[in-house]
Amino acid sequence: MATIKVPARLPELAKAAFSKALADGDLFYFPTQVQDMRVGSLSFQLRFSPSLANKPKGASKSSATTPSKPFDPFEYTTPPPPLFVGDVGPAHFLVLNKFAIVPGHLILATRAYRAQTHILEADDLHATLACLRAFEEHEAAPAESGALFAFFNGGEHSGASQPHRHIQLLPVAAMREGLPAGSPWSMLASRLDDAAVAPFRTFAEKIRLDMPRGELHAAYLRLYEQSVRAAAGDEMVGEAATTGEAAISYNLAMTRDRLVLCPRRAEGADITDEDGKVVGQLALNGTMLAGTALVKTEAEWDALRGNPAALTAALKMVGVAQPRFVDTTGNKL
């Protein structure tokens, strides 16, 4: 199959679209404070956005005679011009995330409705890889893990917020904003060939920017089956279905040279302070495969900074715990 066509000079186009939409008030940008946190041998970004707690709610389609229908931000024949970036092949399009905490946050959505809870199709992954390739080819100096980080939240425990299928794309350089000079943070997905590096189990394969559509989808299905087996305690008999509703919740990450899947058991975990009092809940989506976590209240921010082991404990709880993980920081879990 021919390479999927993406908009010309996509990085510049996306950057200009974000700047204009922000200036015109067509999207919301929530700046964050950031601190490096140790999770074993990893440096995790902990980010705090107090204004995100006041994020506007999506509208519902309802009337006096019809039940409320959940709002689908990707349900339109023609995407709204202020957020629309361009088509990616015949089946997908790019829009700006209306509620961004990373500048230039893009969303790759299916033009026809596809369920977020279903197993991804070959075209979904092929379109994602085309976007990564477009950024890589036009960025003068891509970051160490490439110019884009792509992630997918699949299922109720994955951090998914919309039922319409979409894959999210974050500029890696923008993900570094706010980090101190010399920060040890690097893209976690690029390190997940070492299965014991994170407190949750992951499955990874190396990929290429020119990888054929069929090969990429086959790699995804292999990782998906491994994730299903891990969620079943490695006791699953037979092969996992390769179409329809996914058997598990999971996150997917894609960089220029890695495809990673992480089975999920829960969307979040309680945050406790040093006295053991619950002060909030840490909700995690596919950005945890980049090595990032986000809190919305000052109590959560203070509690995690004061008790770094709580972050490691939460990461163990939301995925399938990695028994080989060693907390080298000396923190008590």
Automatic annotation (TrEMBL):
Location of the ATP adenylyltransferase C-terminal domain: 198-320
Organism taxonomic ancestry: Eukaryota, Fungi, Dikarya, Ascomycota, Pezizomycotina
SUPFAM superfamilies: HIT-like (SSF54197)
Region (Disordered), start-end ranges: 53-72
Entry's Gene Ontology BP terms: nucleotide metabolic process
Name recorded for this polypeptide: Histidine triad-like motif protein
Start and end residues of each Ap4A phosphorylase 1/2 N-terminal domain: 7-177
Protein species of origin: Cordyceps fumosorosea (strain ARSEF 2679)
Domain of life: Eukaryota
InterPro entries cross-referenced by the UniProt entry: Ap4A_phos1/2, Ap4A_phos1/2-like, Ap4A_phos1/2_N, ATP_adenylylTrfase_C, HIT-like_sf
Gene3D superfamilies, A to Z: 3.30.428.70
GO function term, MF aspect, one: ATP binding
